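Dataset card, provenance and construction

Sequences and ligand SMILES were collected as paired inputs. For each pair, a complete structure of the chain with the small molecule in place was predicted and serialized as structure tokens. The example below shows a pair involving pyridoxal-5'-phosphate. Curators did not alter the output after generation; any descriptive sentences attached to a record were derived from the structure itself.
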Amino acid sequence: MGLKPANRLEKLPPYLFAALRRKIADKRAQGIKIINLGIGDPDTPTPDPIVDELLRAVQDTADPDRHRYGCDCPVPQLPTAIRNFYKRRYNVDLADDQIAVTSGSKDAIVQFCFGLLNPGDLGIAPLPGYPTYNIGHVFCSAGTHYVPLRQQNAWLLDFDEIPPEVCQTAKLLWINYPNNPTTAVAPLEFFKQAVEFGRKHNILTCHDSAYSENTYDGYKAPSIMEVPGAADTAVEFFSLSKGFNMTGWRVGCVVGNPSAVKALKTVKDNIDNGFMRGIQFAAAAALDNMESLVPPINAVYKRRRDMVASALAEAGWPVDVPKATIYIWAPVPEKYNGSSAAFAEDLLEKAGVVITPGRGYGVTGDGFYRISLTYPDDVIQEALDRIRSIAGK
Ligand SMILES: *Cc1c(COP(=O)(O)O)cnc(C)c1O
């Protein structure tokens, strides 16, 4: 049968790490021990109190709905916990129609696009940036206008770089701080500009706050919802994945503009069935207890961050120490002439260490590379020893 997949799959961008992934497989096939510091997926387990709450809920025989469709049997404690989280953390009051519970942010970004974009519409996305914003556009046959993020602007999107014709036609703008991959953080003043930009041009600003809780040295990331009137023109995507070591659980939310939240809910009503009550109870418990659950998780990343920063400085390849996220983002050493691919290849070839070339996040990410801190200390240490041994050569 000559089955031909839908044309939309052909419009997806090529997977930029495909070549690297092949090389890793080749090396491993040759029996070479490769250390991969490329992927951002927490290695330490979900905190016990969250797991305990899941176990309690799935075994609660007094709850006859515990195994049923999550959409038909929602746990009201979860939206309440989200509302309380925004109140405690940001002093933001969210109304019922400003909250949609989601199965994580990645899924929600694409579903959100289905609810908002028509074929031929335009969305604005940062470059380097998380690829899913563009993928959401592609699935809706909408276009993407990329705005470069620049080191000299502290990786903050410069609204003045968006051409007037794009301001006139675009429907969505994606921003993400603390930022993946650059680790940049944004002050509340930046979010004020984003809201103002959205209001002026009738563009919905979509803030991806996946890393809002992964912060260090006393830094607290602001929410775009703190800007007065933000809900008129903005939404925020929050996820429990990174802050609570819960990537596999698939829990998050979209909050803010009620029309946008409603559009997302309509899409969700038609293409998913929610998720298990036990996970909803556990997610509520996670948010309710974040003050005690999050700091120990961040202590692990902070320790690793400092390990990596000092080892790379010793190697003569100094890096900026990030205030947030689970990554280090650093310029490629000088001898590679700004080619992140050449650096990644050399590290793999000579040291058997995999890092993520910034080029994979878009042309303006070239010249930089990303190390993920989601690997055990001893694995990171061995990778750093290997890197140091080749750094001078
Ligand atoms: C990890 C990540 C997400 C997605 O997380 P989910 O597990 O889908 O909630 C969203 N945005 C950015 C920038 C990320 O790095």
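Derived descriptions for this record:
The two ends are 54 Å apart (CA to CA).
The chain has a mean pLDDT of 95.
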